[in-house]
Amino acid sequence: MITNMKKQNRKDDAVLLAWIAIIFLVVVWFVTPPGNKFTQLCFWGNNTKFFFAKMIGTSSSTEYIFHRNNAVYLAKMYPKKDTALKEMDKAIKTLPTYASDHELKRLYKDRAEIKLFLGDYKGALNDFVNSDMITFNDSLKVALLFKMAGNYKEALSYCNNILNKDSAAYAGFACMADIYTSYGRPDIAIKVWDLAIDRNKNNPRAYADRALVKKAMGDIDGYNSDVKIAKEYSPAIDIEDSIIENTLHPKILTLNIE
After folding, report:
1. What is the mean pLDDT of residues 127-148?
2. How far apart are alpha carbons 9 and 154 in whole angstroms?
3. For the chain, how big is the Rg over CA atoms in Å?
4. pLDDT (tens digit, 9 = 90+) per residue, 152-199?
5. Residue 249, by phi and psi: left (phi above 0), alpha (psi -120 to 50) or beta?
6. For residues 101 and 130, is the Cβ–Cβ distance under 8 A?
7. 108 in helix, strand or coil?
8. What is the DSSP letter of 35?
9. What's residue 133's pLDDT?
10. What's the CA gap between 57 and 232, in Å, rounded?
11. Which of its termini does the chain have fewer beta carbons within 10 Å around, N or C?
12. Count of beta carbons in the 10 Å neighbourhood of residue 52
């Protein structure tokens, strides 16, 4: 009986040690990079799914999707590494020959979004242009990428595209004002914001952005006046917030998993 009790105690100790080891490993996993553990689990799931697809011989037609999804996961987990771009390159390389041109262009556009997220502006611009799938919502991104490349004329054409489709679009005015400011003409940027406010006098963001241009020009009274108006419309507004910075430095990669 005593012998049985000792065996049971040793078994209980072994189970306890096993649980301690498991808990320790889980804690280590949680505190080590990457921080986005849900995305990491999805990444593992994507690789497991592809592993079984290869085992049963059904991976050839979906391999490019596997690499494309891997790229999205990796970009979200490691936004400072180029591993995601290597996966996107594999996605394009493994695209079946029978796939449509639209599918290839879509991969270029997805790679452009990832490059923008990773801060590769030159590469993002090239891929956006090569995709030939620049939508209204992409116009601000592409305009700013042309600006970063020093092509102000082309940048302004995309700003105009926005305003041609929506004459009161805040993004269009922000785009144009930023281009002129970067070109060394903040005086024209002020006129752009004057026009924006004339078309929509209730937009606090327009007053805030005009205030920042005035501040950069040394017009502190004008800055304070516009800040006051902006806060009257929106007391909690962040004056320093910028659609330009948020577009060039997106905090979230919005690509979906397929």
Report:
1. 96
2. 77
3. 26
4. 999 999 999 999 999 999 999 999 999 999 999 999 999 999 999 999
5. beta
6. no
7. helix
8. S
9. 92
10. 64
11. N
12. 10
Residues 6+ apart with CB under 8 A from 206: 170, 173, 193, 196, 197, 200
| Count of other CB atoms within 10 angstroms of residue 126 | 17
- Residue at token pair 């290839």: 104
DSSP letter (8 states) at residue 119: T
Q: What is the pLDDT of residues 198-219, one digit of tens each?
A: 999 999 999 999 999 999 999 9
Pinpoint the alpha helices (H) of the chain. 2-31, 37-55, 63-77, 83-93, 101-118, 121-131, 139-148, 152-165, 170-182, 186-199, 204-216, 220-233, 243-248
Per-residue tokens: 253: 């990669």
Q: 158-166 — which CB contacts under 8 Å span 24+ positions?
A: 161/136, 162/136, 165/136
Q: For residues 100 and 131, what is the distance between their CA atoms, to the nearest angstrom?
A: 13
Residue 123 neighbours by CB under 8 Å, 6+ apart: 85, 112, 115
pTM for the model stands at: 0.84
φ, ψ for residue 214, nearest 5 deg: -60, -40
Q: 139-148 vs 121-131: helix axis angle to the nearest 10? A: 130
Pair 115, 127: CB distance under 8 Å: yes
Instruction: Give buried/exposed letters for 66-104 (b at 16+ CB in 10 A, else e).
Output: bbbbbbbbbbbbebeebebbebbebbeebbeeeeeeeee
The pair phi, psi for residue 21, each rounded to 5°, is: -65, -40
The answer for residues whose C-beta is within 8 angstroms of residue 215's C-beta and 6 or more apart is: 223
Q: Return the structure tokens found at 183.
A: 């070109």
Cα distances from 84 to residues 34, 78, 134, 163, in angstroms, run 14, 8, 22, 34
Classified as helix, coil or strand, 101 is helix
